[in-house]
Amino acid sequence: MMITESASGKLILFGEHAVVYGRPALAVPLSQMRARATVQAQDKSGIVIRARDLKRELSVKDAAADDPLATIVRVTLAALGVTGNLHITVESDIPPASGFGSGAAISTAIVRALAAYFEKTLSRTEISALVYETEKLYHGTPSGIDNSVIAYEEAIRFVRERAPETAGSSRGTARAVIRPFAIARSFPLVIANSGIASPTKMTVGDVRRGWEREPARYEAIFDSIGVIVEAAQMAVARGENEALGDLMTQNQRELERIGVSSPEIEDLLAVGLRAGAQGGKLSGGGRGGNVIFYVEEDRVDEVTRALPGAGAVSVIVTRVGGTTTGD
Ligand code: PMV
Fold it and tell me: What would the pLDDT profile of 95-141 be if each residue is shown by its tens digit?
């Protein structure tokens, strides 16, 4: 028997970083990019994982305790109460370290494929909790938003319930309130990939050090981001999408103040805005990864054409909302 399951990528629309500190954030699945995992029995004993894109092959038994691929297999088999001699192949068309949630998507695909292979059912919350175990390895102190939006595969508002633990003590699942949010009118989003791989662990760590040094200043910035997120959620619920451009730009300004932007991101933003985008911001950890733009329908082509000249290695147009989210 051979079972293949997949999981989507994701984008954070508003609220990254502040979400680690208990403020709300909005995220959407990006179904046009997917990670896939295939599980089949093997004759040899043990479990082998082959990650084609990462050019890695590893034995779960011999892998380091903090290896994310081995970890997701170990925790999932333990949760399912099963074991076996398995060959797991992982493929992904989600670029890593770009803010598209590639790590969480690969982990989610593996959890889904293992559950299906053993004919077990896991709820979205259970899948999300298992994937969170590997997010901790990638991110240090993740909020849990990536694993949630990918396991739920719908537009979500995410609020972490408690303050982040100190580095190194992030055991257990972060409790969070996760709710789908309404999008009255779908809208296009232009996504420019800067091509700069920027590990989220680094920017999250730097923000933490900044917050430890100047807690009041950082808390005030996180509060402003929280207000922007509320306004954005209200705007999309009412179909007032034209407010999103300004709100994105305001969110970007706050992210600049906590040091997670970069000259490359700001060049892309400047060119996108000059080409007619109504607003934009970095998405995800920052200092690289993606820049997203809110663009009225009739300017999408112009903005899309301008961005490669400003250093974008790829530009994607997606639709957010309705039944076509991400397709
Ligand atoms: O870099 P990404 O897209 O995986 O997003 C990270 C989002 C942060 O808010 C920066 C961190 C987190 O754990 O929420």
Answer: 887 788 889 999 999 999 999 999 999 999 999 999 999 998 877 77
> Among candidates 158, 159, 161, 104, which has minimal Cα distance to 127?
104
Prediction pTM value: 0.90
Ramachandran category for residue 284: left, alpha or beta (phi over 0 → left; psi -120 to 50 → alpha): left
Measured from the Cα of 25, ligand 1's closest atom is 9
Measured in Å, residue 141 CA sits from the centre of ligand 1 at 10
Indicate if ligand 1 lies below 6 Å from the C-beta of 139.
yes
Please work out whether the CB of residue 140 comes within 6 Å of at least one atom of ligand 1: no
34 lines ligand 1 (CB under 6 A): no
What percent of the chain has a predicted confidence (pLDDT) above 90? 84
Q: Which amino acid, one-letter code, is at 84? A: G
User: Which of 102, 156, 204, when mutated, tests ligand 1's pocket best, judged by the most ligand atoms within 8 Å of its CB?
Assistant: 204
Residue-wise over 291-309: b if at least 16 C-beta within 10 A, else e?
bbbbbeeebbeebbebbee
Q: Could you report the per-residue pLDDT of 155-193, keeping only the tens digit for each?
A: 999 999 865 554 444 444 568 999 999 999 999 999 999
Mean pLDDT in residue range 254-276: 98
Residue type at 73? V
Distance 288 CA to ligand 1 centre (A): 12
Radius of gyration of the CA atoms of the chain, in A:
19
280 Cβ closer than 6 Å to some ligand 1 atom: no
Task: Give the C-alpha separation, 288 to 286, whole Å.
Answer: 5
Our answer on whether the CB atom of 159 is closer than 6 Å to any ligand 1 atom is no
